[in-house]
Queue: 2 jobs
Job 1
Amino acid sequence: MSVQAVAWDIDGTLVDSEPLHQEALMAVVATHGVDLSDLLPDAFVGVSLPDVWKVVGSRFPADMRFEDCDRMVCDHYRANMHRLTATPNVDRVMRILHERGIAQIAVSNSNRDVVDTNLRAIGVADLIDFSVSLDDVPVGKPDPAPYRLGAARLGLPAERILAVEDSATGLASARAAGMKSVLYCPDGRACGPADHLITEMIAILDMLDADS
């Protein structure tokens, strides 16, 4: 089998978290009277909070620091983690891969607090070898640093790892790191170049069976 490990993106891939991320950001924005009406609704999908801050930070009051924004966003997110739901069939797929002995990691553009919250909320923390958060790397996706760190910690060549993503930002990171890529896109509309496009998570099993 050429694929020896699967590297999962988390937000939007393992868990339907983008609405809660957006809600948490908008709650902080509203608290401080910041206007984002000139930006597209999906402007920050797959974008790390530090990169969001680079765009909107200057719109906050002068005494507002990134660390304050980060804490408030994370507090809102964690307080509402009970509303997070796993992507359909992802638990089943991950458990089958675990039984087959295929290594699994999670590679996220979120900070450690959010990563751990997500994995705990959907009950898959015991199925992965480790997770890579934004706090673990000098720069996040679309830079290849997160996926390169994942490959290094696994001790595997990047080409033996299948990265599963849902955004152009994540795809760019995985492909730049040299990994095979899968775009999970339920509506079938590609958002970036990938080696494979799937509309249902269960299709990963067929893909790996064909690869064996």
Note: The chain has two domains: 5-17+84-211, 18-82.
Job 2
Amino acid sequence: MRIFISILTLLFLFKFNFAIAEVRDFPNKDCDITVGLLRTEKETYDHEWASSDKICEMLVSMGAHVILIDYNKLFSKAKEEALSEAKDDVIHVEQLESKKIKEVVKDFIKDSRINRILLPGNYYNLDSDPLPPTPNRQLVTKAIVQIVDENPNISLLAICGGLQGIMHAKGIEIISMKKLHKIQESKKSYHNDRRLNKLKIAPESRLSSMISRFAQPDEDGWFAIYFPDAHGEMINNSDKNIEKLQSLGYKVVGLSDDGVIEAIEDKHGNIHFQGHPESLILRSKRYYSENYKKREIATLITIAIINDFLYRKCETIISS
């Protein structure tokens, strides 16, 4: 049995490394991929960095240059400029801050030649404890959302808390999972990163076109994929909230069996996830005996998703 497991592990790692090699060889030398990663340069409170170091390594291994979008520094700079312009008028400062944050973030993105932005997960919540100790991250997230809306040449990928931050910035309601239903023990199990949460992916979506390389649809054209999941909040899936989401140009393209919105696409083709597909790559060298085949397929799909995020707009970058 141990020999059999070792063989399976080696086969999986071979496939994984081969897929990564494919991605490394793909970029055009003239295609300069610079990813802005929303994270502080110095950790100022517990859990602020989470797994962002490993995310940096993953992006670099796939051919990208990574620059930190330090939301604390950018917020401080915007506040200083607002104070200076308002001449210490507190009421005027508050009115100027939002405008200044956007200007500072936009200039930073332009000066750093950032053409991709990744909003990773966040330990803190928007609707329930633990709440963030400062508003800095969310204010910078709001600015990024506005900038990307205005400049579709910047690709955006959001994961878990990053997705929730985008939705909150757009006025979409984010609620605690506990408000939707009492989480039973069986549902708690997939919050452990050793478990995989099932996602149903809508046909004729950009996401389904990536998945179709690795999985077969059901008779209705829907795909089933499996990603690690760990979150305490979600997009409120009420009819009113979904209608508002759709009116803003978003499509719900992934759902879990209990109705949680797991993936959305925006009007520019960016895809955002409630779960943590990236953790399949970050922890790929650890063998999980449970759902081995599902994990293997999900990892290859994740590589395709990150590859799409990094390189689908290469022609636009080269010509700009």
Note: The chain has a mean pLDDT of 83.
